[in-house]
Amino acid sequence: MAHDFPYRSELLASLSALILLWESPGLQSEILTSSGEPIDQPAHQALRHLTAGQPMRPSDLAQAMGTGASNVSKIVKRLEAEGMVARDRDPEDTRSTLITLTPQGESAARHVYDLGDEMIAQVLATWSPRDVSRFTELAKRFSADAIAAAEEMRRKGLKRSSREGPTLAD
């Protein structure tokens, strides 16, 4: 799958394949359905974002989810009807609303993260504890460096390099 991405960096090609696979709404929906999950994929995604950054304005949730305001409105209405979220007036802008998780929503969101933990456990089931630990440490380091680099890129753009750059083999 990684060979489908024509990056010079094998690492970037592998990460791209993984991100596209795991962020695929179709795959997520299939996994949730075959696991007997009562909450659909868009609701799971909204719960994950709300857990990470609540309270949120609907427009911020739409941006985080990469979808439109009308779609988020439908998702939030379903979650609200199920007692998982509440809408409140934004104290900083009374024309706007904020979406927060209710206790029932927090429980459902925790379950979403539990499913993620189960998924990664299945992926790593055949790995040794030493390999899991080493990979975890490297992934944490990579994530921290990538977040810092993204902030720099946001401000200054990409630095152009004449060399080909690192690959997974480097």
Beta content: 5-15%
| Strand adjacency order, main sheet | 1-2
CATH superfamily of the largest domain: Winged helix-like DNA-binding domain superfamily/Winged helix DNA-binding domain
Low-confidence stretches: none
Q: What is the CA–CA distance across the termini?
A: 20 Å
Topology overview:
Elements: H1 10-22, H2 25-34, H3 41-53, H4 58-65, H5 69-81, E1 85-90, E2 93-101, H6 103-123, H7 129-156
Antiparallel strand pairs: 1-2
Helix pairs in contact: 3-6, 4-5
Describe, in plain words, how this protein is organized in 3D.
The model has no long low-confidence stretch (mean pLDDT 88). The protein is built from 7 helices and 2 strands, in the order αααααββαα. It is globular and about 50 Å long. α4 crosses α5 (69-81). The chain is 62% helix and 9% strand. The protein has 2 domains: 1-36, no CATH class; 38-123, Arc Repressor Mutant, subunit A (Orthogonal Bundle), CATH 1.10.10.10. It has a two-stranded antiparallel sheet. With 170 residues, the chain is mainly alpha-helical.
Brief characterization of the structure:
One of its GO terms (molecular function) is DNA binding. The protein has 170 residues and is mainly alpha-helical.
Summarize this structure as a short list of keywords or feature phrases:
mainly alpha, single chain, 7 helices, two-stranded antiparallel ribbon, Arc Repressor Mutant, subunit A, globular, 2 domains, 9% strand, 170 residues
